[in-house]
Amino acid sequence: MAIDFEKLVIDIVKPLVVYPDDVVVKILSDDDNEISIQLLVNPDDLGRVIGRGGRMANAIRTILYAGGTIENTRIRLDIDSY
Asked: What pTM value is reported for the model?
């Protein structure tokens, strides 16, 4: 069973933000052993997603890395506003 990383990121981030409809997740590269994910949020929500000292972003990355370990895939997450 393959993990849907796009849905996983959306399910984690949407409850955290004020504008959940503005959350966009793009899979930029999907190789056999590396996935690059871009998370775009409303500029007002950027601080909520990154968190104080980057703690929230690190927690999200940790969850994605755990899923990547199961799939034998390296995950890269970029968080930005549009």
From this structure: 0.93
